[in-house]
Design brief:
66 residues; alpha+beta; Rubredoxin-like; 3-stranded antiparallel sheet; 2 helices; elongated; MbtH family NRPS accessory protein
Length: 66
């Protein structure tokens, strides 16, 4: 399978700043938002790895900052 034939995925985030990959053909579930990034699984993983560097939920990060 070439990269043009590879399944496409989208990157999602939730209210806690957590990320997930979802096949592009599947509707975005409730409580998740589409980031607008679409690519192969590997491209999406690279995108998430570059942006989601702190895996703690947003509510925990905020609580620890107070």
């Amino acid at each position: 399978m070439t990269s043009t034939d590879a399944p496409r995925y989208r990157v999602l985030t939730n209210h806690e700043g957590q990320h997930a990959l979802l096949p592009a053909t599947v509707p975005v579930p409730a409580r998740w938002s589409d980031t607008g990034f679409l690519g192969t699984e590997a491209e999406c993983i690279d995108h998430v790895d570059a942006r989601w560097t702190d895996l703690r939920p947003l509510s925990l990060r905020r609580a620890l900052e107070e």
